[in-house]
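The following record pairs a protein chain with its ligand, phosphoenolpyruvate.
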Amino acid sequence: MRKPMMVANWKMNKTRDEALAFIYAINESLPSCDVVDTVICAPAILLRDLVKRQGDNLRIGAQNMHYEEFGAYTGEISPVMLHTTSVEYVIVGHSERRSLFGETDEFINKKVISALSHGLKPILCVGETLDQRELGITSSVIRNQLEIALKGVSSDDIKNIIIAYEPVWAIGTGKTASPSDAENECKNIRDAIKELYNAVTADEIRVLYGGSMKPANAKELLSCPNIDGGLVGGASLDPTSFLELVKCCL
Ligand code: PEP
């Protein structure tokens, strides 16, 4: 039995006051973390404030990190900084980082390894562009992303990774993958993990769907056997909508 998970990706949104009002609005209403993991991935400047005020059933994540511990990397945040701020999760390889900031699979692999070695749980994003989808190469693109991003990750460490299938054409566009397409690709991810690791790991690893998920379409997506939760941008910005999404996991 895999525990469902709902992850908010606030991207570059919310002031400190807005962020605190959000978590005060949901803290008491969240279902127990025994039955669903609820995570908010916030801008780095808000992490400390959120960690200090997170309720028992809320966890905090970062949206990005550098793989080095310290150094001349102006503007970057290190895994040591995240870990010592008691952040638990970090999104790695989001398509906006890949497309807008030139992150490659090899660079993402370094972040995955570094996050794990600093006790952080990476939420590794993979997914195809519209061109790749139209060329019919979705599964091989995802397979390749996984193979490179997970290079050197041991069978012990893979247990601390969450994979998010995020078709790039569905992110922030209002277009959602159909439940059957999303299920197929999440199943392909699980099959790839089985080949790269083993059947038990494939069965245990959590695979989320991301791409214009909202309360109106979440139930159908989350009822698919290989979809264990969501990574949500737009619909995670409003506390009522996010709470509804968390409850759709139950
Ligand atoms: C995301 O940013 O990971 C995402 C899925 O965004 P949205 O829900 O807005 O498509």
